[in-house]
Write a structure and sequence with these properties.
Blueprint (H helix, E strand, L loop, with lengths): L1 E5 H4 L2 H18 L1 E2 L2 E6 L15 E3 L6 H9 L1 H15 L5 H25 L6 E7 L20 H6 L6 E2 L4 H41 L6 H18 L1
Helix pairs in contact: 3-5, 4-5, 7-8
Protein name: Type VI secretion protein VasK
């Protein structure tokens, strides 16, 4: 899930809380919660559509804390400043990275961590990354809600392959599969046991038949064998 928000939208705690509940509801309905990437869409007072774009942000692993998120954002500042200086020297209008570095340094990290902490404290929701960009120019002829291929997406597309969503709710389908397997195992065990018992009873019956038809034995012994044979036949029926 890529959640795009402007700076103003990030500051609206009530709307964020509502959106988080919607994400949780969708996860329960689907039985699966995908990792969430927050995409902060910044603004510029002048046109920078021709600025070279790249992935700008930090990517996280499961179980992140506000402190570790702050460390990741702090780690961006020097890299943004260096790249931003290179772009501004090449074209002084291209100051997005420099301004972003300055914003993060001047309280932006603390502000962002406070805004995103609700997402860190709501399992099974997982904050997988925070990225930044200016609004991307939409080419003519692009369909509504279409995906705009841009270098800004590269980092997300690579990182998402390493992240796994989480199953939500009771796994009914998997439980049913294991139930069927257990029933099949019980049926198989019962069949094997029944086969063994029947085989033993058949062997005993053969012995009784042999004893009942043994003319060398006494009459009383043959009568007892015939009686036992009749009882054995009744059990087999």
């Amino acid at each position: 899930v890529v959640w795009a928000m402007t700076e103003d939208q990030l500051s609206q705690r009530t709307q964020i809380e509502t959106a988080l509940r919607m994400l949780e509801k969708q996860g329960r309905q689907l039985g699966w919660q995908a990792p969430v990437y927050v995409w902060n869409v910044r603004h510029s007072h002048w046109d920078q559509r021709d600025r070279p774009t790249q992935t700008v942000g930090c990517f996280l692993s499961e179980g992140e804390t506000p402190e570790r998120l702050a460390q990741s954002l702090d780690g961006l500042i020097s890299t943004l400043a260096n790249r931003g200086m290179e772009q501004a020297i090449a074209e002084n209008r291209h100051d997005f990275l420099l301004r972003l570095a300055q914003s993060l340094r001047d309280g932006g990290v603390t502000r962002l961590v406070g805004q995103l902490t609700p997402l860190l404290d709501r399992p099974p929701l997982v904050l997988a990354g925070v990225t930044f960009s200016l609004p991307l120019p939409v080419p003519s002829g692009m369909v509504e809600h279409g995906w705009l291929v841009d270098a800004s997406w590269d980092g997300v597309l690579v990182h998402v392959r390493e992240m796994r969503g989480q199953a939500v709710g009771f796994p009914w389908e998997k439980s049913a599969q294991w139930g069927v397997i257990a029933l099949a195992a019980l049926w198989g065990a019962g069949s094997v046991t029944s086969f063994g018992v029947n085989r033993h009873q058949i062997a005993v019956s053969r012995e009784r038949i042999s004893q009942a038809s043994d003319h060398q034995g006494t009459l009383s012994a043959r009568l007892l064998s015939q009686h036992d044979l009749q009882l054995q036949i009744d059990r087999l029926q």
